[in-house]
Design goal:
The complex is a heterodimer of chains A (264) and B (349).
Chain A lengths: L6 H24 L17 H7 L2 H34 L5 H13 L2 H15 L4 H27 L2 H9 L4 H30 L2 H6 L7 H11 L4 H23 L4 H5 L1
Helix pairs in contact in A: 1-11, 2-11, 3-6, 3-8, 3-10, 4-6, 6-8, 7-8
Chain B lengths: L1 H13 L12 E7 L1 H19 L2 E7 L1 H10 L8 E5 L3 H6 L3 E2 L17 E2 L4 E14 L20 E4 L5 H14 L3 H4 L7 H6 L4 E5 L2 H9 L5 E6 H8 L5 E4 L5 E11 L5 H11 L2 H11 L12 H4 L6 H6 L2 E2 L3 H19 L2
Parallel strand pairs in B: 1-2, 1-3, 7-8, 7-9, 11-12
Antiparallel strand pairs in B: 3-11, 4-11, 5-6, 6-9, 6-10, 6-11
Helix pairs in contact in B: 2-11
The chains are: A mainly alpha (264), B alpha/beta (349).
């Protein structure tokens, strides 16, 4: 058996990669153009658009809001999603199918509908505070990703090992930390990454719930597209691409979790 | 060390939930537009208003239909005090009880408002008027008549505004005017006869655009020759910066795109909201806004330097001279959903 990839498969893979990567390279190329408006291919070379974006207080504030929102939404989604997944996989109870359908519902319902529904609900409840509203809204859409990935990991974990640990005297916490956690760790990591990215990139929910104090980056990008005619918008897009790449590298090298392992 | 890190992390994460001290003062939320107008409102008008009234104004950028949806969703417990929407949405907002009548006695700046820019018997005022027409790359000679756009020489060279955007209704009126040979004012009532004409334009359409500024950018790069139909407020600020894109107004006439403000019914701090709306139509504020965003003011008594005057239609006599047409939005709104659906069917793949 040879490890070499058959050439037709390699060709298709290369083509797919080109289709996926090429659109990401275009804004990077346009962002260095030394022209007062966006052109492709770029003309001249300058980094002034990056400086313009990075020194723009609104962009900095929007980035900070998005990062905080993504972090707290991920933590919240994990705190609720992991126990939910464990209950759905390990326990049998009346209405289990209904609970599963409700938890995964936000994956099916268009986000724009979820967003307007949340706005109406918060308004009726008299709940103020855009960040708090967005936090709840983002958790609603992040939890299904955590539940799905953790459920998948739990389904492949051997429950008899948990029984064996209990028989040998391990308490519930010890069973979770020493038996379950090592087996579901890749699933939890995958869920966390998905939750973070879904929250960080979210537009549809934030569009309804954000206010001027809590204005996340995707909304700022949309507003900036309407405001900037110059390549600074391309520079901002390029920075988001670099950020995503940096995140993957951090996970791979910094946390020692292989993205390929998560993907598989 | 770990405790300190945790404490710092906890503080950083908790910060967004804590109401800042500044929020103790009175504050209102105002739904504004994006683009150059929104930029000027946020950076110039609001800071001065906050200083003068000792309050906080929270501007939220949006667009007409989303802003109306936000008012609907929060109708029982309004979050916004003032909302910026286009003229076409004011009858809808009034009919649904989303907006309140403006108190004339507390808005002295209304004295300068041209009567035509007061809507629904006092439920909204205009803030800026854009010219609706076609935009083109400066190396391309624009058509003298809209009818020329159907000619084969434009095959695959036009960008058409998305059926979801309001200027698509202007396009339908244009098509009806070409089909019937009637002026816009009469043709708008015969749009149903124009859909074969609309479909005949399909070979000339390169693609559909949803964002006017991005479309202007693509026209400037030469990806297409002409875009139709769009507001001057999205194009002229860039023409003014020497980008190779500008507007043209074929002989059939041009459209008025009127941005307005409304008072949200039962919104927080109505007194501040009214003061803010009054500030928005004060001549000094209108002059600055018009010079920055290159829109025409709805109030009288402003003098513009030639470098601004060349981009706008002002005063009201100049608007009339240019034949700025405002559609019968009550008639169009009632039929818009069906027409949008037909447009989507024609231009979908």
């Amino acid at each position: 058996m040879s490890d070499r990839i058959p050439w037709p498969l390699g060709l298709v893979t290369a083509l797919l990669l080109a289709i996926i990567v090429a659109p990401l390279l275009v804004p990077i190329a346009m962002s260095i153009s030394d022209t007062p408006y966006i052109v492709f291919p770029p003309e001249g070379f300058t980094l002034e658009w990056y400086v313009a974006v990075l020194t723009e207080p609104e962009a900095q504030s929007a980035l900070l809001v998005s990062l905080k929102l993504a972090v707290v939404s991920t933590i919240g989604a994990m705190a609720l999603g992991i126990p939910c997944a464990m209950a759905l996989v390990r326990l049998r109870f009346p209405g289990r199918g209904l609970v599963q359908a409700l938890v995964l519902g936000p994956l099916v319902v268009p986000l724009i509908v979820t967003g307007v529904g949340l706005l109406q609900t918060f308004s009726l409840l008299g709940l103020r505070g855009a960040f708090l509203q967005m936090w709840i809204g983002h958790m609603v859409v992040c939890i299904p990703y955590v539940v799905r990935s953790v459920s998948g990991a739990l389904a492949t974990a051997d429950p008899t090992q948990e029984d064996a640990a209990r028989v040998l005297g391990a308490g519930p916490v010890a069973v979770f930390l020493r038996v379950i956690w090592p087996q579901i760790r890749p699933g939890v990591a995958a869920g966390a990454i998905f939750a973070f990215i879904i929250s960080f990139d979210d537009f549809a929910i934030s569009m309804w719930l954000a206010d001027a104090r809590s204005f996340p980056l995707p909304l700022y990008l949309y507003a900036a597209i309407q405001r900037f005619f110059d390549p600074s918008i391309a520079a901002l897009s390029a920075l988001m691409v670099f950020f995503a790449l940096g995140l993957v590298l951090l996970i791979e090298k910094g946390l020692g979790i292989g993205v390929r392992r998560i993907a598989s | 060390m770990n405790t300190t890190r945790r404490a710092l992390l906890g503080t950083a994460l908790a910060t967004p939930f804590v109401k800042p001290l500044a929020a103790q003062q009175r504050e209102i939320s105002v739904g504004i537009w994006g683009g150059a107008q929104g930029d000027y409102v946020k950076r110039q008008i609001i800071p001065a208003f906050e200083r003068d009234f000792g309050c906080k104004v929270l501007p939220e950028e949006g667009f007409t239909l989303a802003n109306v949806s936000k008012m609907r969703a929060t109708k029982d417990n309004p979050r916004f005090s003032v909302m910026f929407i286009d003229d076409l949405a004011i009858p809808i907002a009034k009919a649904e009880g989303l907006i309140a009548e403006l108190p004339w006695d507390r808005m002295p700046a209304m004295a300068n408002l041209y009567p035509r820019f007061l809507y629904e018997e006092g439920f909204g005022t205009a803030l800026g008027i854009s010219l609706g027409g076609i935009f083109h790359n400066t190396r391309v000679r624009p058509p003298e008549s809209y009818a020329e756009l159907w000619e084969p020489r434009y095959r695959g060279k036009l960008k058409l505004v998305s059926p979801n955007n309001t200027p698509s209704m202007f396009f339908l009126i244009v098509a009806a005017a070409i089909e019937t040979g009637k002026p816009f004012a009469e043709a708008q009532y015969e749009i149903d006869k124009a859909f074969d004409r609309v479909a005949a334009l399909r070979p000339n359409i390169l693609n559909i655009f949803g964002d006017g500024i991005q479309a202007a950018n693509e026209i400037a790069q030469g990806q297409a020759d002409i875009g139709l139909v769009e507001y001057s407020k999205y194009i002229y600020p860039y023409t003014n910066r020497r980008a190779p894109v500008t507007m043209a107004f074929p002989k059939e006439g041009s459209f008025a795109g009127t941005n307005c403000q409304v008072l949200v019914k039962n919104g927080p701090h109505q007194d501040l909201a009214v003061a803010f709306m009054n500030r928005m139509i004060e001549p000094a504020v209108q002059k600055g806004l018009s010079e920055f965003a290159l829109t025409s003011p709805p109030v009288s008594g402003i003098t513009f330097a030639p470098e601004t005057a060349r981009w706008i239609a002002y005063p009201v006599e100049e608007m009339d001279k240019r034949g700025l047409f405002t559609p019968d939005w009550t008639y169009i709104n009632a039929r818009r959903a069906g027409w949008t659906e037909r447009l989507n069917r024609i231009f979908s793949l």
